[in-house]
Amino acid sequence: MKWRTCVSGAILSVCLAVTAYGKLTRAEHWSEKRLKHKHKLLTSERLKRAAGLADIDLFKQELKPFLKVRVSGTPANVEVQEHIKSRMSSLGWQVEEDSFVDTTPYEDKNFNNIIATYNPQARRRLVLACHFDSKYFPNAHFIAATDSAVPCAMMIHLADSLKELLKKGSGDGAKDISLQLIFFDGEEAFKHWTSTDSIYGARHLAAKLENTKFPAESSDNFNTNELHRMVGIIYNIIYRFK
């Protein structure tokens, strides 16, 4: 029951967020559309329908490839990367990578963030994010199922569950806003959590976005995000108030 509550809650969160965008006139510039955000309630029937999209058996299948030690810079971590890219590509999402090398307390390591966008032509993005690496313990076999294999599986299952609804679109703003899923590498500290030994992937992508100019009439980069929330936070909120 807990599993279904969490997975259904993630799907509901996206459905509620997407329905919060108001209609706009043709004369309004896309960058002003955030000013039109309005709260909108879904009927009980639509809420039940959205929650019913979750399939716990399919979710568990999505979870299996992540249930391994996957420390950043290791072959197992790369295997998980390949699975994420393959799975999201098979669902019809555009997949991009943000690869880099950074210094850790042990040695320089390779990291790779994965960004999956449903409609790359959309100027605005509704972003869900999690990390796929597991924490390094020198003398322990640490799989890190809750933090954060489960959120990764939740996001992929969400993309799969919503595929038919995404094809149909969600009103006048369907072509202007897109779901975007970011899978971060290197969230965990290798030794102790500090400003330099933690969130390697998030820090790198944030710096990249900050230094990327966004032309007024272009949509070929990431710097268009409307909302960035961690799936782990959604999990905690749903579990607390279920």
TrEMBL record:
One of its GO terms (molecular function) is glutaminyl-peptide cyclotransferase activity. Keywords: Acyltransferase, Transferase. Residues 113-211 form the Peptidase M28 domain. It catalyses: N-terminal L-glutaminyl-[peptide] = N-terminal 5-oxo-L-prolyl-[peptide] + NH4(+). Its EC number is 2.3.2.5. InterPro entries: Peptidase_M28, QC/QCL. Pfam families: Peptidase_M28 (PF04389). It comes from the Eukaryota. Belongs to the glutaminyl-peptide cyclotransferase family. This is glutaminyl-peptide cyclotransferase. It comes from Lingula anatina. The gene is LOC106167147.
